[in-house]
């Protein structure tokens, strides 16, 4: 039975939107599949790992009503390997999906759609708001690199999304550094917050590719729903208490100066060539008019860069993980950065001049 005929790209693009969450091997084999559903000439694709679920509109032209599941990665690899613009037809019998394109033919196993597990999506919405995709993607890029990776403090393996009044705030920390971004939204909401899992954040970031179009965000009971570009992501949230980020932000660091973001990033990238490969430490020497950055390694090799700065305060020597410094400079696209140091044992605050909506705090390290 012919169930769909469509141009290759019109099928590959929505498939790629949902397959990022699919694991190649799963204890429940059907979760390695994508659900393809047709109704009234419209098609929909859906994938889930039971923590996050993504569905999106597929190409038009489905024949009749149908629901099938097939291996997501194999289906995607086949479509990728076909030439752009190829006309693809899908035929389905009870256990096989046959994909034809030109003289190519592929027969894939299917599993019953009735056995495909779906997340139970809550109906009670505690907060809803929208903003332009470009603004939201910019905020995500400003903080997501600070999320922890497989930390035993599970609440750090994600990103805090907080709304209050007309403010949206995103915060991420791995315990060594913290990134904060905020923006105004067209809403007046009571205080609400959720911790988005790392996997959800990364999939969401890939989805935001129409800058001027809005993304709709809904906070549900222990879930959050994002809708944009014909795609819906529903994700469970991390059940835990995120650290009080306001207590982490240093307020009285007095060694403050502004310098070129690109100049500092370039200096750090060059000296990092000779950094210790395991500890990645860099020493910063601050004195009137000059910031020096030094890296060395176990082979007694050393790299030094000097940057002239408008600064007339006291001297300071402090060590950092150089990767943490480069991360923030690569993800903030302002011309200048403001650095506020305290002493060698206190966290340093990175901000954008005249912009209260971004903060980055990094702890020092002993070198």
UniProtKB/TrEMBL annotation:
GO terms for molecular function: 3'-5' exonuclease activity; DNA binding; DNA-directed DNA polymerase activity. Keywords: Cytoplasm, DNA replication, DNA-binding, DNA-directed DNA polymerase, Nucleotidyltransferase, Transferase. Its main location: cytoplasm. It is found in: Cytoplasm. One of its GO terms (cellular component) is cytoplasm. Residues 5-119 form the DNA polymerase III beta sliding clamp N-terminal domain. Residues 131-244 form the DNA polymerase III beta sliding clamp central domain. Residues 247-366 form the DNA polymerase III beta sliding clamp C-terminal domain. One of its GO terms (biological process) is DNA strand elongation involved in DNA replication. NCBIfam families: dnan. Belongs to the beta sliding clamp family. Confers DNA tethering and processivity to DNA polymerases and other proteins. Acts as a clamp, forming a ring around DNA (a reaction catalyzed by the clamp-loading complex) which diffuses in an ATP-independent manner freely and bidirectionally along dsDNA. Initially characterized for its ability to contact the catalytic subunit of DNA polymerase III (Pol III), a complex, multichain enzyme responsible for most of the replicative synthesis in bacteria; Pol III exhibits 3'-5' exonuclease proofreading activity. Forms a ring-shaped head-to-tail homodimer around DNA. This is Beta sliding clamp. It comes from Neisseria meningitidis.
């Amino acid at each position: 039975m012919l169930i769909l005929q469509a141009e290759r790209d019109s099928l590959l693009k929505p498939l790629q939107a949902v397959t990022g969450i699919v694991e190649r091997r799963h204890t429940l084999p059907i979760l390695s599949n994508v659900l393809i559903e047709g109704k009234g000439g419209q098609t929909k694709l859906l994938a889930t790992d039971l923590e996050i679920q993504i569905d999106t509109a597929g190409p038009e032209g489905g024949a009749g009503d149908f629901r099938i599941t097939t291996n997501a990665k194999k289906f995607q690899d086949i479509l990728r390997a076909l030439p752009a613009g190829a006309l693809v037809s899908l035929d389905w019998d009870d256990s096989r999906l046959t994909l034809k394109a030109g003289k190519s033919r592929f027969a894939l196993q299917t599993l019953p759609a009735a056995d495909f597990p779906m997340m139970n999506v809550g109906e009670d919405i505690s907060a809803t708001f929208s903003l332009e995709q470009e603004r939201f993607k910019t905020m995500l890029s400003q903080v997501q690199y600070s999320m922890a990776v497989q930390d035993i403090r599970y609440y750090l393996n994600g990103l805090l999304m907080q709304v209050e009044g007309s403010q949206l705030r995103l915060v991420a920390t791995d315990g060594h550094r913290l990134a904060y971004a905020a923006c105004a939204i067209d809403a007046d909401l009571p205080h609400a917050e959720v911790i988005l899992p790392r996997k959800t954040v990364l999939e969401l970031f890939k989805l935001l590719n129409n800058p001027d179009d809005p993304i709709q965000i809904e906070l549900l009971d222990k879930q959050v729903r994002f809708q944009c570009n014909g795609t819906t992501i529903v994700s469970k949230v991390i059940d835990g208490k995120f650290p009080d980020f306001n207590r982490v932000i240093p307020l009285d660091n007095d060694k403050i100066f502004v310098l070129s973001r690109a100049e500092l990033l370039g200096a750090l990238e060059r000296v990092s060539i000779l950094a210790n490969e395991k500890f990645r430490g860099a020493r910063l020497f601050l004195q009137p008019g000059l910031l020096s950055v030094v890296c060395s390694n176990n082979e007694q090799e050393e790299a030094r860069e000097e940057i002239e700065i408008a600064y007339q305060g006291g001297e300071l020597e402090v060590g950092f993980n150089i990767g943490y410094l480069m991360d923030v400079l690569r993800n903030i696209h302002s011309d200048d950065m403001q650095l506020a140091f305290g002493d060698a044992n206190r966290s340093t605050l990175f901000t954008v001049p005249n912009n209260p909506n971004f903060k980055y705090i990094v702890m020092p390290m002993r070198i």
